[in-house]
From TrEMBL, chain A:
<keyword id="KW-0813">Transport</keyword>
<feature type="transmembrane region" description="Helical">
    <location>
        <begin position="202"/>
        <end position="223"/>
    </location>
</feature>
<dbReference type="InterPro" id="IPR005672">
    <property type="entry name" value="Phosphate_PstA"/>
</dbReference>
<keyword id="KW-1003">Cell membrane</keyword>
<dbReference type="InterPro" id="IPR035906">
    <property type="entry name" value="MetI-like_sf"/>
</dbReference>
<comment type="similarity">
    <text>Belongs to the binding-protein-dependent transport system permease family. CysTW subfamily.</text>
</comment>
<dbReference type="GO" id="GO:0005886">
    <property type="term" value="C:plasma membrane"/>
</dbReference>
<feature type="transmembrane region" description="Helical">
    <location>
        <begin position="150"/>
        <end position="169"/>
    </location>
</feature>
<feature type="transmembrane region" description="Helical">
    <location>
        <begin position="30"/>
        <end position="54"/>
    </location>
</feature>
UniProtKB/TrEMBL annotation, chain B:
<keyword id="KW-1003">Cell membrane</keyword>
<dbReference type="InterPro" id="IPR003593">
    <property type="entry name" value="AAA+_ATPase"/>
</dbReference>
<dbReference type="InterPro" id="IPR027417">
    <property type="entry name" value="P-loop_NTPase"/>
</dbReference>
<keyword id="KW-1278">Translocase</keyword>
<dbReference type="GO" id="GO:0005315">
    <property type="term" value="F:phosphate transmembrane transporter activity"/>
</dbReference>
<dbReference type="GO" id="GO:0005524">
    <property type="term" value="F:ATP binding"/>
</dbReference>
<keyword id="KW-0592">Phosphate transport</keyword>
<feature type="domain" description="ABC transporter">
    <location>
        <begin position="7"/>
        <end position="251"/>
    </location>
</feature>
<dbReference type="Pfam" id="PF00005">
    <property type="entry name" value="ABC_tran"/>
</dbReference>
Length: 303, 256
């Protein structure tokens, strides 16, 4: 300050806009500090976790491990068939659950009447979304292993997994469709579109970001799911690569990880587990990135 | 101002509309002339927007509405069982209060309607997009950015885009539901000038909160109060020499 007057004011604290040292100011600062602290702690924890898993496993990876066949007794077993099964089971389960989940989400958002029965259905869907996965595994056993007498199979695991994901996909789709502004829907109707045209050309494209996020979520969860698959797909694979037979046993990478850690007698079980964990985490991250990059690009274009 | 010499296009006869047990329109009867601008004025909740939305049956989407009476457009009863609402809405376009372009490109916004109704040819679509944007006096501003997002336009441009989108399906009637109330004065003026140009080709029915707008742009003005038509006459006459005391009170600013 060039003149003496304002600084004199500041010292005496009589500046009209000087900070008030009230309780509100203090709690505001305290709260901001706490939020920052918790945020940073959480992020650091996640990064540390990811780093530990990836750093232990990734440097030791080689094609032989990724492509090789698992071994029961000797050292040096790979994860080829179980890794393949992971993708195969995920693929089949998404093929089943995406159309069904989206269809029921769209039904609930656009067509379902606003009555008590539908409200009850909605509560059921929400409840199912939080049912532990092992319950779906038990359901799968009853249906595929006992009633249909198929044994432990890829297809049984995939369909049970689809059931597990269905409620989440339904909810996410319903929410995403509902959050499309009403004005856009009206604009489409006012141009003479049918309900189906509005859903296809406006509601789904606008809601797509939310729906894709939901698909990422369930795909990541399905890829890492073990309980359902242990019960319906078993803990072994057919042991050979590129086995597309849906009636063969369907152990996935996540199940294999559990298996080598707890049951296996191979001497390098720990190493296999570390490498499998790294592959698992890496692929789940990749699923998220691969699904989302096109959405980011699109969102940037549409700003 | 022209007199009511032009032909009637929309004929509303003893229209009652109920939202549940609330009667929003009470025995509304009027003849709306073609290729002119008819303005609906009145205080909030007087039923002017409701009536506008009966003309393209957008009220159908609100549950628990009931309609009695008759509306014909060009002699055809629009509430008859044979009517296909999609075809009706193609003929009776609408522009809303808030500019509501789709989050698509400018081109895709205008081409949306024609595509809905089965036009696939790129050449045909290009032609429709250009003529529609020209009619909406937006072409010169956006012709080099047709692939850009419609959301990048200003509010006034977005509203003109919505007008272009509405006329791209070649309607007979254009409904404007307070189409300028979310816009700044300069954009409002542009839309008003545009409406003046468009009335040579389309029958325009506009709802407006702004009496001065009705006085500036419309040929006929209808004054609503509590779901009833109080007065319907040439705009000039309604504002200079209203027949009804309530109209006079409203236009002189004593209520509303």
């Amino acid at each position: 300050m060039s003149t003496g007057k304002p600084s004199a004011n500041a010292i005496s604290g009589s500046h009209p806009f000087a900070a008030r040292r009230s309780m509100n100011q203090l709690t505001n600062k305290l709260f901001t500090g706490i939020v920052w602290l918790i945020g940073i702690c959480t992020i650091l924890f996640i990064i540390a976790l990811l780093y530990t898993i990836l750093q232990k496993g990734l440097p030791q990876l080689d094609w032989g491990f990724l492509y090789g066949e698992p071994s029961e007794i000797e050292e040096g077993g790979g994860i080829g068939p179980v890794l393949f099964n992971s993708f195969y089971v995920l693929f089949i389960s998404l093929i089943i659950s995406i159309p069904l989940g989206m269809a029921s989400g769209i039904y609930l958002a656009e067509f379902a009447p606003a009555n008590k029965f539908i409200a009850f259905i909605r509560i059921c869907v929400e409840g199912l979304a939080s049912v532990p996965s092992i319950i779906f595994g038990l359901f799968g056993i009853v249906l595929f292993v006992e009633s249909l007498d198929l044994g432990l199979t890829v297809i049984g695991a995939a369909i049970s997994l689809a059931f597990l994901n269905l409620p989440v996909l339904t909810r996410v789709t319903e929410e995403a469709i509902r959050s499309v502004p009403q004005e856009m829907k009206q604009a489409s109707f006012a141009l003479g579109s049918t309900h189906l045209q509005t859903i296809r050309r406006v509601l789904i494209p606008v809601a797509l970001n939310g729906i894709i996020t939901g698909i990422c979520l369930v795909a990541g969860r399905a890829f890492g799911e073990s309980a359902v698959i242990i019960l319906t797909g078993g803990v072994t694979s057919s042991g050979v690569m590129w086995d597309f037979n849906p009636l063969d046993p369907g152990a996935t990478l996540a199940v294999h990880l559990w298996y080598v850690q707890s049951e296996a007698i191979v001497p390098d079980a720990r190493l296999i587990a570390e490498k499998s964990a790294a592959v698992l985490v890496f692929i789940v991250l990749m699923i998220n990135i691969v699904f989302r990059v096109p959405m980011w690009l699109n969102a940037r274009k549409m700003r | 101002m022209q007199s009511i010499a032009s032909q009637t296009l929309i004929d509303i006869h003893k229209l009652n509309l109920y939202y549940g047990s609330f009667q929003a329109l009470k025995s509304v009867t009027m003849d709306i002339p073609e290729k002119a601008i008819t303005a609906f004025i009145g205080p909030s909740g007087c039923g002017k927007s409701t009536l506008l939305r009966t003309l393209n049956r957008m009220n159908d989407m609100i549950p628990n509405t009931r309609i009695e009476g008759k509306i014909t457009i060009g002699g055809a009863d629009i509430y008859s069982k044979e009517v296909d609402v999609e075809t009706l809405r193609k003929k009776v376009g609408m522009v809303f209060q808030q500019p509501n372009p789709f989050p698509k490109s400018i081109y895709d916004n205008v081409a949306y309607g024609p595509r809905l109704h089965g036009i696939r040819s790129k050449q045909k679509l290009d032609e429709i997009v250009e003529t529609s944007l020209r009619s909406a006096v937006l072409w010169d501003e956006v012709k080099d950015y047709l692939k850009r997002s419609a959301l990048s336009l200003s509010g006034g441009q977005q509203q003109r885009l919505c007008i272009a989108r509405a006329i791209a399906v070649n309607p007979d009637v254009l409904l404007m539901d307070e189409a300028t109330s979310a816009l700044d004065p300069i954009s409002t003026l542009k839309i008003e000038e545009l409406a003046q140009e468009l009335k040579d080709k389309y029958t325009i029915v506009m709802v407006t909160h702004n009496m001065h707008q009705a006085a500036r742009v419309s040929n006929q003005t209808v004054f609503f109060l509590n779901g009833e038509v109080v007065e319907f006459s040439d705009t000039e006459k309604l504002f200079s020499n209203p027949r009804d005391q309530r109209t006079e009170d409203y236009i002189s600013g004593r209520f509303g």
